[in-house]
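Hey,
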Amino acid sequence: MSSAAGASTLSDLASAIGVRTEEAAIVAELQVGSEEAFSWLIAHYSQPVYSLVYRVLDDPSDAADTTQEVFIKVFRGIKGFHSNASLKTWIYRIALHEAFNQRRWWFRHRGRETSIEPAATTEGGCSPALKEVLVDEARSPLQNVFSGELQACVETELKSIAEPYRTTVVLRDIEELSYEEIAEVMNVSLGTVKSRLMRGRDALRKRLQRHLPAFGVDVPTATGRHHHERRQVGRQEVEVMP
């Protein structure tokens, strides 16, 4: 191993140790009821949790109520938190559990209700108002790549991806969790995470095909020849055309 590589490895290790030490201190403060620690927790995690819950529920009001319930569960359960998982993955696991519970309730009790407001969509099926209700003001990895209407289409088509593939794509490519963190959040193996991510990305690419010509991306010709358009999604480069 070269000296440069060794220095980088030691730096990464020191950084990881520093993060764990800082987190342990915060958890200790939370567990003794520190108001300052709880304020930090809400300030640090409220927006990511809301964003994640919203992408499961697709309703701002339900997402806000569920986010509140998530932090109630966090406050009540923090004394039983153990360091076998990171604080972040523990909170995300609670968030997904509450979001899926709320969605199941919605399908049982409200799924048959019909809104009096017309659903305005474009010819391609993407809502022109979608950007107005996207909950995360910070630029996500997808927003760094797909801007404007194309980003709205990505968000719309993402909602059509079946679970658990959609949530895996959201956790990896939008929330930027590592494979290991996703495995902890979803309580599955690393192999399952990678399989679900591959299938979810593939399903998303296929759904986006019909929108790509409008954004200057070639689609397959009648002879089967096509150009590959590569985009940076999350932490890796992927083809948006199969």
